[in-house]
Amino acid sequence: MPGANVAAMLEGVTILELGGVIAGNFGGIILADLGADVIKIEPKTGDTARNPQIAPYQDHSAIHLFMNRGKKSVVLDLKSEEGLEILQRLVEQADVVVDNFRPGVLTRLGIDHAALKKINPKIITVSITGFGETGPQKDKAAFDLVIQAYSGHMSITGEPDGPPARAGVPLADMSGGIYGCISILAALVGRELHGGGAHVDVAMLDSMVHLLSYDALDYLTAGNQASRHGSAHAHMVPWQAFPASDGHVVVAARDEKFWLNLCDALGRDDLKSDPRTENNAARLVNREWLVPQLEEEFSRRSQAEWVSILDEFDIPSAPVNTLETLFDDPHMEARGMIQSYEHPTLGAIRYQPSPMKVADWDFPKRHAPMLGEHTLEVLTDRLDYTADRVRELAVAGVVGTWK
């Protein structure tokens, strides 16, 4: 619940989310946490994120339980005349419509931006697709793995002598959702400043290419090809994971003061005066000589010992945590990064909440909705349908309701 007399920043904003799985859902979590009313418009079979065969938890999917928390679920048959009419009436009072269908699907349904703008001139529409709405690959099927590979990220991820690797999380999916969310927030501000709605085309591929950041600039400008370095850094030494006797620790001794502190922590005064380590440029040239020496030193103690020593010497470092050690860390509790919500059938679901800390505002702890859980509520509250009429529509297959 919000603090005293403090409203959520997006209270009063209505988002219709036609998106699914991760790319179409991830941005909606952020918007719901900030107070927007995010209404999922789902088919009778539900969002694909509900598939209990993927990341299963009892008869649900962990993807749905995380990606859709805090949202409302309305089931509509958009291929029926009345189902489409209900969506159009919701658009009249909505601010944003988000989808992640393939290009052309919304046009065939008659609910693309041009059509919705006639219903609501101030509507903001955001389409998140794999390859974008234009270009020769626009109709190509896309999943996170496909985009991670196509974008070049896998060519620079992994060990130097190993195969290409993907990021451990669905980064392409989530980056599409994040950039979609940013575009929504920008369009809402722009509408207040300048009036009128907007359509935004967000490609997961473009999002991942943007995340190539300085590596892409270096290639495009100077022709320098980035390569795989595992946990190490292409331009800094030491900057990588080192094996302790029972785990790994990472050290990011970018600045000279941290390198000198590391030498003290290791008890290696000789490395301070060696011309092969006098600065980062020298250490970079002599990486193959230096790193094995550091690895040998780190192997002499446990991970916990090194964490304590490195902190004592103020060296940027961290244990390579597992999820178990991460969520056992008191810092996670102090930051409020472990929360729970009550699910209608599963009981308490523990999860990590929004990373944003907003003064005087506590993020809501609302469960991921059951399929069609809010159909009755939304149609009666927003569109003045009677409960009897909603039940008739449910029998006719136009809408779906829970219980």
What distinguishing features does this structure have?
2 domains; alpha/beta; three-stranded antiparallel beta sheet; Rossmann fold; formyl-coa transferase, domain 3; seven-stranded mixed beta sheet; disordered N terminus; 403 residues; 15% strand
Give a quick rundown of the structure.
This protein is of the alpha/beta class and 403 residues long.
Structure description:
This protein has 403 residues and is an alpha/beta fold. The protein has two domains: 14-211 and 334-400, 3-Layer(aba) Sandwich (Rossmann fold), CATH 3.40.50.10540; 239-243 and 248-319, formyl-coa transferase, domain 3, CATH 3.30.1540.10. The protein contains 18 helices and 14 strands. The chain has helices at 26-33, 62-67, 81-92, 105-109, 113-119, 144-150, 171-194, 204-210, 213-222, 256-266, 269-273, 280-285, 287-298, 303-312, 323-328, 330-334, 375-383, 387-396, and strands spanning 14-17, 37-42, 56-57, 60-61, 72-76, 96-99, 124-129, 198-203, 239-243, 248-252, 317-319, 339-343, 347-351, 399-400. Strands 8-7-6-1-2-5-14 form a seven-stranded mixed beta sheet, with helices on both faces. α1 packs across α7 and α7 (171-194) crosses α8 (204-210). The chain is elongated and about 85 Å long.
